[in-house]
Design the sequence.
């Protein structure tokens, strides 16, 4: 992890009144954190922390393994201004789309054989999109590539292109799932390029 960010983290803990021992332990733990944690974008940092703690925690040395969870929570608080626990609540809240999202999740694991973590991430990405548009459309084909582009460019404008691509991948997979179910969808959604740099090459009216 970036030494300058760790120095900033150390100063942050001092301001919050943490003991020298805690500051030392948490900072040492962050030294072993992957470089993906260097981001200042809360959503990206949240996703990277979740991924690391679920799949890579055993790679930390024993002392760091014990402290990395509280250290990551404090790092997230420093970056976002909100506690990790409070930020997480938005992802576990029930929505009116739960039934179809649960079905999409099961399809992703059972039919496409992707990991549970990836399926959960895609479910969340789609849930965020559906919450943004407000209502489930009477006909899914009403939604076009332009709707997806506008959503990603407005709601997730601060994300890196690679992160935007992950959202587009999730949404394309969701619409592919709808098509698999026999639901008519607008083909422009399934053809939307994953890289924002390529979006201008596609038909902006679709």
Sequence:
């Amino acid at each position: 992890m970036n030494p300058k960010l760790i120095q900033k983290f150390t100063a942050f803990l001092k301001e919050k009144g943490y003991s020298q021992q805690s500051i030392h332990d948490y900072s040492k733990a962050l030294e072993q954190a992957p470089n993906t944690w260097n981001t200042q974008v809360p959503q990206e940092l949240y996703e990277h922390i979740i991924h690391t703690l679920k799949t890579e925690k055993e790679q930390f040395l024993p002392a760091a393994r014990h402290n990395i969870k509280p250290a990551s929570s404090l790092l997230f608080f420093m970056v976002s201004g909100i506690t990790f626990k409070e930020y997480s609540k938005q992802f576990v809240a029930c929505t009116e789309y739960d039934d179809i999202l649960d079905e999409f999740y099961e399809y992703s694991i059972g039919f496409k054989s992707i990991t549970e973590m990836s399926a959960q991430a895609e479910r969340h990405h789609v849930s965020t999109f559906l919450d943004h548009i407000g209502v489930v459309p009477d006909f899914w084909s009403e939604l076009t590539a332009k709707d997806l582009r506008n959503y990603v460019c407005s709601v997730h404008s601060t994300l890196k292109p690679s992160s935007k691509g992950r959202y587009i991948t999730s949404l394309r997979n969701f619409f592919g799932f709808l098509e698999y179910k026999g639901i008519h969808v607008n083909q422009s959604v399934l053809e939307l390029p994953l890289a924002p740099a390529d979006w201008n090459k596609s038909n902006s009216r679709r």
The two ends are 42 Å apart (CA to CA).
